[in-house]
């Protein structure tokens, strides 16, 4: 058991940051991403001796993260209700760091869970539409329409307002 524990620790140290980024893309929140990764790594550790191909561990952990995240959505659906008023949107600070990246993260956060997951799996994890369909348990057509609608929402959210030309 000590040898397996050491192998697992080495794996987590080597791949943890990349897996945390994937978890963040799925959840949109740092704390939720850490919880998601922790849950997926717990499942992986418990199944460590049953996993035949250790070269495919990233896929196993990512699949666990997607499955756990879907379970969380289903549970959350019963707990979340729409509000009567929309919260104020944060103002863009042109003097701040990477505004484009920040705006993209905010736009991803505004997507519904299924759309965000489909976008993350397609463009961040580079999965094919059939792989996404299998992972999410939906049809390929649903993946295509979900990704298409999500991209349209992102394009709408990320339209750059026209700059006023300086007067001479």
How would the blueprint of this fold be written?
Elements (H helix, E strand, L loop, with lengths): L1 H26 L2 H17 L10 H21 L21 H12 L2 H12 L4 H8 L3 H18 L11
Helix pairs in contact: 1-2, 1-3, 1-5, 2-3, 5-7, 6-7
What report would you give on this structure?
By secondary structure, the chain is mostly helical. The chain has helices at residues 2-27, 30-46, 57-77, 99-110, 113-124, 129-136, 140-157. Helix 1 crosses helix 5 (113-124). It is globular.
Explain briefly what this protein structure is.
By secondary structure, the protein is mainly alpha-helical. It has helices at 2-27, 30-46, 57-77, 99-110, 113-124, 129-136, 140-157.
Question: How much of the residues is beta strand, in percent?
Answer: under 5%
Instruction: Determine the CATH topology of the largest domain.
Output: Rna Polymerase Sigma Factor, Chain: A
- Structural class comes to mainly alpha
**What is the residue-mean pLDDT, rounded to a whole number?**
81
Helix content: 55-70%
- According to DSSP, the number of beta strands is 0
- The top-level CATH class of the largest domain is Mainly Alpha
Report the order of strands and helices. HHHHHHH
Could you give a short account of the major beta sheet? none
Rounded to an integer, what's the Rg over CA atoms?
Answer: 19 Å
> Which of globular, elongated, flat, extended, rod-shaped describes the shape?
globular
Distance between the termini: 76 Å
Q: How many helix segments?
A: 7
């Amino acid at each position: 058991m000590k040898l397996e524990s050491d192998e697992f620790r080495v794996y987590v140290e080597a791949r943890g940051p990349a897996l945390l980024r994937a978890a963040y893309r799925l959840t949109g929140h740092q704390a939720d991403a850490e919880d998601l990764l922790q849950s997926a790594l717990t499942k992986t550790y418990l199944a460590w001796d049953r996993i035949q191909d250790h070269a495919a561990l990233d896929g196993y952990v990512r699949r666990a993260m997607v499955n756990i995240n879907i379970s969380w959505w289903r549970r959350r659906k019963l707990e979340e209700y729409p509000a009567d008023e929309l919260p104020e949107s944060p103002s863009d600070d042109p003097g701040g760091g990477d505004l484009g990246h920040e705006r993209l993260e905010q736009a991803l956060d505004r997507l519904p869970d299924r759309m965000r997951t489909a976008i993350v799996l397609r463009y961040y994890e580079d999965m094919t539409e059939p792989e996404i369909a299998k992972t999410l348990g939906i049809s390929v057509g649903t993946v295509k329409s979900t990704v298409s609608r999500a991209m349209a929402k992102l394009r709408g959210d990320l339209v750059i307002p026209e700059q006023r030309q300086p007067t001479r």
